Each structure stands twice: as C-alpha cells, then as structure tokens.
Amino acid sequence: MIDEILKDAQQRMDKSIGVLQDNFSKIRTGRASANLLDHVEVDYYGAKVPIHQAASVSVEDARTITVSPWEKSMVPVVEKAIMTSDLGLNPSTSGQVIRVMLPPLTEERRRDLVKILRQEAEDTRVAVRNIRRDANQDFKELVNDKDITEDEARGAENRIQTLTDEHVGRIDSLLDNKEQEVMTV
C-alpha cells in the first residue's frame, strides 16, 4: 500500500512539473519558437483545434514565425486567432503565408516575465507540497486502520519528503534556466 501511495504521488508530482514546463514554453524569451503558438486555437469548420492542426508552423529566423494554413480559406481565420490570443502579437499576411514578427523585449517586460515565471514555479511548488500532504494523510489513515505500523508510516513519510525535495529541486532548476533565457539579451 505504501508503494502504491508513493507511486501515485510521484506520478502526480511529475504531472505538475510537466504542466510547469508547458507553461514555461508559452512564455516567450525574445527568440522565435514554433511552440509559442501551441496554445492558440483556431475555429476549424466549427471545432476549436490547436493551430498546428490547421496550419504548418515554423521558425523563419530568430524573430519570425511563419504560419502556412493547409487551406487558403483558413488564412484570415488563423490570422485572427493569432491576433486575439493573449500573446500580443500582430501577424502580417502575404498570400497564403502568415508571418508573425516578435518585437524585442524591453528590460521592464523581461522583469515582468521573470515575475510570472517565479509565480508559476511557486504555484507548482505548492502543488507538489499538497501532493506530499495528501500522501502523508493517506499514511496516517493506514496507521489508524492498523494496516501499517507507525514506524512504517514514518519511513514512508521520509520517502515522500525525499521525493518532494527532488521535485522542488527540479522546479528550481527549470526556473533558473528559464530566467537566464529570458534575461539574456
């Protein structure tokens, strides 16, 4: 039972870090990246789909993302989806190709992005700690039901703490790397 609880906790912690990595990839660093547009959704024949399912997204140079919709009729729809997204980008269309120019980041904007990064990391740390708390609660319930001894519960709590420390370390490492990426001009 202890191993099942630990395995579940590890899976949940890994998912939390996966969400953090996904959120970090959406925060631009001043360099063009195809995954910057991943969360932009396009109305494709009545269904909302990610932009990469309706168009080819590629990086032309360090500051330009090129979007080529599969169908000519989708060009204005894709352009509008990029414009109305929370990224604050203004695409320009030339024929069937949509170019998204990334403006250079100001120092103030970089600091704001770092604040956002730190908040995302702290939210993930809180999520990991909540998972630890849930696992510890499960251990206490097992002790109360007399399924495990208090010594086994203490050992399990030490193992879950070690797991928590590892995941918090990974979060800190991801944050440091992304902060350096954002602050590099």
For the largest beta-sheet, the strand count, sense and barrel status come to: 4 strands, antiparallel
Q: In what range is the share of β-strand residues?
A: 15-25%
Low-confidence stretches: none
* Rg on CA atoms, Å: 22 Å
Order of helices and strands: HEEEEHEEHH
Order of adjacent strands in the largest pleated sheet: 3-4-6-5
Tally the helices.
4
* Mean pLDDT figure: 86
Question: What can you tell me about this protein's structure?
Answer:
This protein has helices at residues 2-26, 75-84, 107-144, 150-183, and strands spanning 41-44, 47-50, 55-61, 64-69, 91-94, 97-101. By secondary structure, the protein is of the alpha+beta class. It has 4 helices and 6 strands. The model has no long low-confidence stretch (mean pLDDT 86). Helices cover 58% and strands 16% of the residues.
Question: What labels would you give this structure?
Answer:
185 residues; four-stranded antiparallel β-sheet; 6 strands; single chain; two-stranded antiparallel ribbon; alpha+beta
Which helices and strands appear, and what pairs or packs with what?
Layout lengths: L1 H25 L14 E4 L2 E4 L4 E7 L2 E6 L5 H10 L6 E4 L2 E5 L5 H38 L5 H34 L2
Antiparallel strand pairs: 1-2, 3-4, 4-6, 5-6
Helix pairs in contact: 1-3, 1-4, 3-4
